[in-house]
């Protein structure tokens, strides 16, 4: 039995939240996009929320939780989709969102605390001619620590690939959960011991993150009569190395009917939502014409009068908008094989029809433009969802299953032995986010 009063007394000086409603709220994330996770994680919550503001306070919290052998679930902004920050065994929710210092930005690199919001970092970086290389569509709320520990890529991945790609993270500093916690700085390839580890391998306090050159971006909507014409256009724009872009999202009708931008997308048409650098805009109409498209909307990203941010209809925001109209909709996360002819995309589009609505996000993988996808699925049963997943896998489509809270069953498939070795060193009592790794299942 944990003596919560004694534990709280040892956290003196740090903000602690014990109000059950607030604790329950701060134990949630966006796993609710999955009907399967919704059922599995219903009612799971922590006992206490601890909100450090400095690394010294993180150390104090870690020392205390180790002493009382209390599970610790780390939280950024709680926008993850796999229940990554839902505590399975109660304990402390360590909310990192108050650690918001941007230490420095220079020569295309930023050093920041883990709780910095992605939009805040981007804004600051742009003042110096740099910007975030990639960001999830939750950039306004998500933290950099949560993105590194729980995300994968997003707006900008068409240029820089994903977080897991070498060179997208320079350094990660973590606090351990040993009897006497330490702060360890990982650099170079060692960062993979913590990258996308869902908070099981140390508490990230600081990061060094490389930036990209900032461009004036223009948001563009292009519509097409045929979905495959839109998809081929997306591939061609991705392959046009001299044209600078940050986002190529392709949507089969009726997905655009869920968007606040639908006045620019006539009923029954398929849409490409783009962010293109101003110097490359002149070339866009020619390429659009080649694929039979029509530009229906064009705004500068900084235009104060615009009514929406186009990026906030893309990536997993697409699912958010669709679900607010129809809560029976869920989604897949896929990577199609590299193929300029997009044959498997074409096959899946025709084969599933409206049951699996096609949503492509072109990204860079190993130097090539490849369609990732967050297809919308009309959910019926778990069995049917698994059948759909299996059919994709049998046809060479990689599925990062978003309907599981087990790290190996999602995008990872196996845990890197180096990550496991690091875990044993930094978290010898298995207190960090217990229950999320198959290899270390608690009974
Ligand atoms: P949280 O959800 O709070 O945490 C995520 C994971 O990181 C958890 O396992 C948590 O324990 C761990 N963690 C958090 N902070 C730390 C820390 N300091 N130290 C160690 N571990 C930590 N993801 C994408 O990659 N791309 C997208 O485009 C994208 N779009 C999305 C759209 C919507 C509408 C939603 C709901 C989600 C989307 N996501 C996307 C998922 C999620 O928003 C991002 O991954 C986001 O970056 C997570 O940040 P967060 O601060 O909310 O992290």
TrEMBL record:
Cleavable signal peptide: none
**Where does the record place the FAD-binding PCMH-type domain?**
41-214
Q: Which UniProt keywords apply?
A: FAD, Flavoprotein
What's a GO biological-process term for it?
lactate catabolic process
One GO molecular-function annotation for this sequence?
FAD binding
For the keyword Zinc, the answer is: no
Pfam families attached here?
FAD_binding_4
InterPro entries reported in the protein's UniProt record: FAD-bd_PCMH (IPR016166), FAD-bd_PCMH-like_sf (IPR036318), FAD-bd_PCMH_sub2 (IPR016169), FAD-linked_Oxase-like_C (IPR016164), Oxid_FAD_bind_N (IPR006094)
Question: Flavoprotein: is it a keyword of this entry?
Answer: yes
Stated name of the protein: FAD-linked oxidase
Q: Which organism is it from?
A: Chroococcidiopsis cubana SAG 39.79
Upper taxonomic lineage: Bacteria, Bacillati, Cyanobacteriota, Cyanophyceae, Chroococcidiopsidales
